[in-house]
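Quick note —
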Amino acid sequence: MTMQHMHVDPLILISDLSGLIEQPPTSIEILPGGLEEWQVPELPSGAVQPNVKFPFVYFEGNLGIPKKVLYRLYMAAVNVPRSSPLYPQASTIILVANPAHQTALNSRKRLIQTGVLSPQKELTFTELLIRGDNEWAKQSIVWHHRRWIFGVLYGEMSSTGGCACTDERNLFPRIPPFTLRAEFQLIRGACESYPRNYHAWAHWHAVVKGVCCVAHSGEFLSETDSQAYIGVVISEGLQLREWLNTHVSDYSAMYQLLNLALTLKDVQVLANGQSQNSELLECNLLALQAAELAERYPLHQSLWLYLRVLCDRMKMEDREGIVERLRQWTSSEHIHLSMLNIK
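Predicted structure written out below.
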């Protein structure tokens, strides 16, 4: 069944689908096939039956869009002029089908600046995209779009303060701690659905560095504010430490955890003696964890590379203790053990 045979104006369907997404649904999923494949009696009781006027699957707040239907609507949406009142809805469909469509993302930035679109709803929309499909989760410009929205919502932190930050971090918005925790959870979910997601980890890195810069800022009325942000960083570091136990091939995660551990050395002076278990993020304890994982999963080269970098940042006596433990477990001629470059 083609769009012409549907006898439904695709612009009406674009408006309907955009309205559903704006509600928003609990999740969005692109379904294989077209309308015909989903006009079946096996749908759960209570699900909206797809039809010509509503060619989508909608059940308990979960929205499924047949791929053939989506791409027919996409072809109509890309031909909607950006000056049209329908363009905000059309750009929604464009990004669902093609999250790397930079023109649509830039147009939505302008619509946010002019008050046509809500920045908070835009955050929700991009979160739905990221959670919905690997193709969305791995797009660098989608993550950059989220950082831009955070700046609109929370403003830009001034460059004053006691921390020498890059320009990017000087302009990092002061995002509330509970929002940061949710953002980190979203990132880990994206890296779970699309392993070794470089762009998601790059976003993680930018957020962590920004939070640390906020913690160094002299703009706070009380030290309690600084402690809250440091607590977010430490909590996320501990979460990432646990993550490595089940993601032993994710070198991007290992690299980010190491950077976080080194960064904490700079911000920990603000912790006022409250370690909040941050000692688990010291290089010697991270190396001990890496050694234990290397014993269990010796064929994962990423673990040995990670361990080597950690050892380079440890005191000689601590480093020798790690290597001696590994030598007791395996031959001193083991190809990966030799990567540690210690005699």
